[in-house]
Amino acid sequence: MQKIAESLIFIIFILGLIPLCFAATEDITEINGLVENAFELDGKQVTVQGEAIGEVLERGEYSWININDTTNAIGIWAKQSDINQIQHYGDYKHKGDIVRITGEFHRACPEHGGDVDIHCTNMQVVQQGYNSSEKISVVKLVITGVLMLASVITVLVYIKITKKLKYNN
Questions:
Q1: Euclidean distance between CA atoms 144 and 79, whole angstroms
Q2: How many domains does the chain have?
Q3: Which of 46, 57, 112, 122 has the most neighbouring CB atoms within 10 Å?
Q4: d(C-alpha 169, C-alpha 161), whole Å
């Protein structure tokens, strides 16, 4: 009886895992993949994910943002209401929000002067950005100091040698 109960529990467990195998997952395309396959993907719905970088360029009800997924960056044309979800844009002092964008890819958008872009139909902030401080390595500081000192010494020696040569001639 116990063997039957254990077998039944095991079968129910396995049957419970089957739907996970068929769960719909969104394919995230690398931005570099869009660039490399621009002709095949032109006009198609794509999903990209990356860090919101730079600044928002507002154009009425719509705005431009750029996202970078470490393979490349691309311009996103989206409704201002979608863009308002983004709190942090990446730069030297900030890590930008990670956003997932679904929209129509254009290899040469006729509406925007032939630019490569994505017209956003859905935007989701996946991870919030944050302020970051760049830490300078002590080793890099020491190496920089040594190289600067070597440069100054080299210039002084050069000046001394050229002065001697002028006086000797």
A1: 47
A2: 2
A3: 46
A4: 13
Distance CA 150, CA 154 (A): 6
Q: With contact defined as beta carbons under 8 Å apart, do 101 and 122 qualify?
A: yes
Assess whether 124 and 147 both reside in one domain: no
- Evaluate if pTM is beyond 0.85: no
User: Is residue 140 domain-shared with residue 160, that is, in the same domain?
Assistant: yes
Query: Domain check: are 105 and 141 in the same one?
Result: no
- The pLDDT of residue 24: 45
d(CA 136, CA 141): 7
Give the amino acid at 75: G
Which amino acid is residue 29, in one-letter code?
Answer: T
Band (10; pLDDT cuts 50, 70, 90)? low
Between CA 76 and CA 65 the distance in angstroms is: 5
Helix ranges restricted to H, 51-97: 80-83
Beta bridge partners of residue 109, listed in sequence order: 115
Rounded percentage of the chain residues whose pLDDT exceeds 90: 68
53-99 pLDDT, tens digit per residue, is: 999 999 999 999 999 999 999 999 999 999 999 999 999 889 999 99
Residue numbers of the domain that contains 86:
31-131
